[in-house]
Amino acid sequence: MGDDEGRAVGAEGAQREFRATPDWAESAINGEHLWSPTTQSGDMCYVGEPECTKHGPRYKCAACKIVAHQSCVPILLDRLRFTCKATFRDVGVRAYREQASTAVTHHWVHRRSQKGKCRQCGKSFQSKLSFSSKEIVALSCSWCKTSYHNKEACFNLTRIGEECTLGSHKSIVVPPSWIVKLPRRGSFKSSLRKSPKKKGSSKKKTKDKAEKEPRAFVIKPIPTANVKPVIVFINPKSGGNQGTKLLQKFQWHLNPRQVFDLTQGGPKMGLELFRKVPNLRVLACGGDGTVGWVLSVLDQLAFHPPPAVGVLPLGTGNDLARALGWGGGYTDEPISKILSNIGNSETVLLDRWQLKVEKNVDAKDKGDGKEQLPLSVVNNYFSMGVDAHIALEFHEAREAHPERFNSRLRNKMFYGQMGGKDLVRRKWKGLAELVTLECDGKDLTPKLKDHRVHAVVFLNIPSYGGGTHPWNRASGIEQATDDGLIEVVGLTTYQLPLLQAGGHGTCIAQCRTARIVTSKTIPMQVDGEACKLEPSVITLSLLNQATMLAKRRGGRPQAQEAAQESLKVTVLKISMPDYEQHHYDKELLAQAAQPIGELETGPASDLEQVRAMIGKMESPNIPPDWCFVDSCTAERFFRVDRAQEHLHFLMDVAAEQLFILEEVADVADTSGGSGGSGAATKDVSRETSQETSQEMSQEVLSPSDDQSTSDRASPDPLTEDKESFTTVSASAAAMPAPHAPLPHAPSTYTPVYSTDGVPISNTDNAAAGSSRTQQKLFGLNYVKYSHLLEKSSEDVLRASRENDLRRLRDLHQQGYSMLSIDAVGQTALHISARADHRDIVKYLLANAPPAIVDIPDTERGQTALQVAAAGGRRSVCCLLVAAGASLVVRDRQGRTAKQLALQANDSELAHYLESQERFHLVTEDVETIV
């Protein structure tokens, strides 16, 4: 494989990585194609004439089934801008329920060949005799698979924005509106002022967070009784090449983000993501080991209630799949039919057994075996003796020479050959002399000796060893997977080969517990995983019951829909002082919370209904004024707007615990507290500051117009900086200090709220008004906009980077957050300050929350002023100082803005910053004395 294979060079020379599975990291792009190499003939490159390069290997997207040359992919994405179907929503943690519609729209794809009939006219699509028709004959939706003729009579522009039904499998497809991408780590806006963290706890938290990888996505389902979403886990290595092909087929029929490749970290990530989805079902595609892997992870995650698990058998064996009615292997059955069967399947319970192994200290022959079994949980069967010996030799031979075991027929021939050898040698004819068996306290060792068994099998399911049935039903005792009993069967070397011909073993017992004592190293196997175990004492007992999906047999009536599981949560109250002090630490907040009581309701209950239920609870701890706290969406707690409680479900904001926050009467929460008066007060203060701004603008000259002209005229920003430095400095010095009282400050006290929703004291009132007044002075179309429901966006950063003021203004008016940050924690103000984009800086200072001026990045811990000083951006520094940027804050290396200017060899800028620093210190001292 060449170095460039699997990559495409974009328009700017950057290489695009080809992905075959969705990206779950912060770098995920919505609408990213899932490319896999293809050699199929007949599919033309989607780019089409004349732009197609006709060069390089061809790739096919599994999610929308378009084909493109490797060198044509950049053209497809950069020029044609044809993306794949959107698989998630890129909205803020506060906004995922706020959009008016969460409906899915069609994803139309041009097709040059199409099967089936037109949805509009009912006629078949014209079949082309040529292998590569250049004419587009149809438009097909990659979600619902609906197709129309490519002509006005059948398909018109009104269909482009139509709502998509998600097709025939809508009851099991996960809508993209359920999957929400979280903002980048650190970009979450707190509704509080910065509170000092304890150094010790901060270090401990950093260490704890390093161990746990932060989530980039969260699932926010809409509970519906007739929707039973299925997440699919596939082992591509199972069944030869079957697993890889099935992965692509499922990505076509379902949302690609509900299909997981088990070789990329196992099932834990997918199960954790979807654990709160009601009526969840799991489809494990692979062998019995794959199913056992999924069930063991479900045990670790303590799912309640556990999802039902279905099986699509790949490879050989697959006894569990046979017992559940799914057959012994996948034989190219249409995936659409399999998905329909999964949707219509019924649930059954499967007993699961625990094996506890202890060393037999009384045994004389220690041998060279292992101390523990390969698996501690039995889903299918547990055996010892000749059958485990054959399985162990097969595994050892396959590990030594994997190339000899690449076909099912050859594997069966090996088993037959080894079985024939043991039939002659009868190596384990004395197994009963080495084993002591007790079932439910009854000693059954004499029975083993009477029948001279060569193997003892504990059967949990009817099928064993690739479809045989060792338990003899003629004994009058039927097997069941959910009766809490396990069947014990004895096998001889004569009975083993007869099992393939419909024979049976010797029925020993049915029991609830078993105790096996071995005095010699004996081969054993658990669900096909074999090893030699040293002399041990083994205890077998019931562990739990797993919910499985069994194929519905013909003629059996469909069971009525089961009622949705109710949710039980503990309601806890958080006080405002605790919230202000520990809002950054989930664990500390949970510990500080006071219990109020327990609540039981359905998963479809919204927060308005839950509020009424809490109001009826008889508890003295319920505060008079409170709001809900979302404890499970973001990396920290945040408040839910009371006006939007009807949009949120209980499962959106709570897991086992539901937190409510006791609000202070005079606190307005910009994250959406329950009070509305604070927002009104904030608007009044904005209007007041606007009036003050108009009065002050007659006295103080704004540098915005002159500087904008000079910015466009000067090719060298640094040169222009030096020429205009004196003028700008004088203009900035004419402005009042950020903490100085306003000339027209009202004599009476009016409470003013900061953009963080925290009331500012009387001494800080004038300072806050002054800060807002200075923001208006920059004169770049100040937009009066509430920061309550802003959405984080990469486009804000891009507009700042490209000096696109019009685009930035449009994004702000659409409600996107001016506090959006990039991967290293830099805001748009950092980016524009570094690039000397002054118009962008002025607009941000006038319209973004005041907190933006002192937000440090996460890489160097530098504010926008420090970034500008390090780059010698004199005009930008003057603008930031005038806006109230802190001059004394230090970065991670302990450097202030003045010291960074000195390092940049700009002594004049350093002198200016030093003088401003002294001025602010003197002003603060005067205020303190007063």
Automatic annotation (TrEMBL):
<feature type="region of interest" description="Disordered">
    <location>
        <begin position="669"/>
        <end position="748"/>
    </location>
</feature>
<dbReference type="GO" id="GO:0023051">
    <property type="term" value="P:regulation of signaling"/>
</dbReference>
<dbReference type="InterPro" id="IPR037607">
    <property type="entry name" value="DGK"/>
</dbReference>
<keyword id="KW-0808">Transferase</keyword>
<keyword id="KW-0547">Nucleotide-binding</keyword>
<dbReference type="InterPro" id="IPR000756">
    <property type="entry name" value="Diacylglycerol_kin_accessory"/>
</dbReference>
<keyword id="KW-0067">ATP-binding</keyword>
<dbReference type="GO" id="GO:0043052">
    <property type="term" value="P:thermotaxis"/>
</dbReference>
<keyword id="KW-0677">Repeat</keyword>
<keyword id="KW-0040">ANK repeat</keyword>
<comment type="similarity">
    <text>Belongs to the eukaryotic diacylglycerol kinase family.</text>
</comment>
<dbReference type="Pfam" id="PF12796">
    <property type="entry name" value="Ank_2"/>
</dbReference>
<keyword id="KW-0863">Zinc-finger</keyword>
<dbReference type="GO" id="GO:0005886">
    <property type="term" value="C:plasma membrane"/>
</dbReference>
<dbReference type="InterPro" id="IPR016064">
    <property type="entry name" value="NAD/diacylglycerol_kinase_sf"/>
</dbReference>
<dbReference type="Pfam" id="PF00781">
    <property type="entry name" value="DAGK_cat"/>
</dbReference>
<feature type="region of interest" description="Disordered">
    <location>
        <begin position="189"/>
        <end position="215"/>
    </location>
</feature>
<feature type="repeat" description="ANK">
    <location>
        <begin position="824"/>
        <end position="845"/>
    </location>
</feature>
<dbReference type="GO" id="GO:0004143">
    <property type="term" value="F:ATP-dependent diacylglycerol kinase activity"/>
</dbReference>
<feature type="repeat" description="ANK">
    <location>
        <begin position="860"/>
        <end position="892"/>
    </location>
</feature>
<keyword id="KW-0479">Metal-binding</keyword>
<protein>
    <recommendedName>
        <fullName>Diacylglycerol kinase</fullName>
        <ecNumber>2.7.1.107</ecNumber>
    </recommendedName>
</protein>
<dbReference type="InterPro" id="IPR002110">
    <property type="entry name" value="Ankyrin_rpt"/>
</dbReference>
<dbReference type="InterPro" id="IPR056383">
    <property type="entry name" value="DGKI-like_dom"/>
</dbReference>
<dbReference type="InterPro" id="IPR036770">
    <property type="entry name" value="Ankyrin_rpt-contain_sf"/>
</dbReference>
<feature type="compositionally biased region" description="Polar residues">
    <location>
        <begin position="690"/>
        <end position="712"/>
    </location>
</feature>
<dbReference type="GO" id="GO:0005524">
    <property type="term" value="F:ATP binding"/>
</dbReference>
<dbReference type="Pfam" id="PF00609">
    <property type="entry name" value="DAGK_acc"/>
</dbReference>
<dbReference type="GO" id="GO:0010646">
    <property type="term" value="P:regulation of cell communication"/>
</dbReference>
<keyword id="KW-0862">Zinc</keyword>
<dbReference type="GO" id="GO:0007200">
    <property type="term" value="P:phospholipase C-activating G protein-coupled receptor signaling pathway"/>
</dbReference>
<dbReference type="Pfam" id="PF23578">
    <property type="entry name" value="DGKI"/>
</dbReference>
<feature type="compositionally biased region" description="Basic residues">
    <location>
        <begin position="189"/>
        <end position="207"/>
    </location>
</feature>
<dbReference type="Pfam" id="PF00130">
    <property type="entry name" value="C1_1"/>
</dbReference>
<dbReference type="InterPro" id="IPR002219">
    <property type="entry name" value="PKC_DAG/PE"/>
</dbReference>
<keyword id="KW-0418">Kinase</keyword>
<dbReference type="InterPro" id="IPR001206">
    <property type="entry name" value="Diacylglycerol_kinase_cat_dom"/>
</dbReference>
<feature type="domain" description="DAGKc">
    <location>
        <begin position="225"/>
        <end position="359"/>
    </location>
</feature>
<dbReference type="InterPro" id="IPR017438">
    <property type="entry name" value="ATP-NAD_kinase_N"/>
</dbReference>
<dbReference type="GO" id="GO:0008270">
    <property type="term" value="F:zinc ion binding"/>
</dbReference>
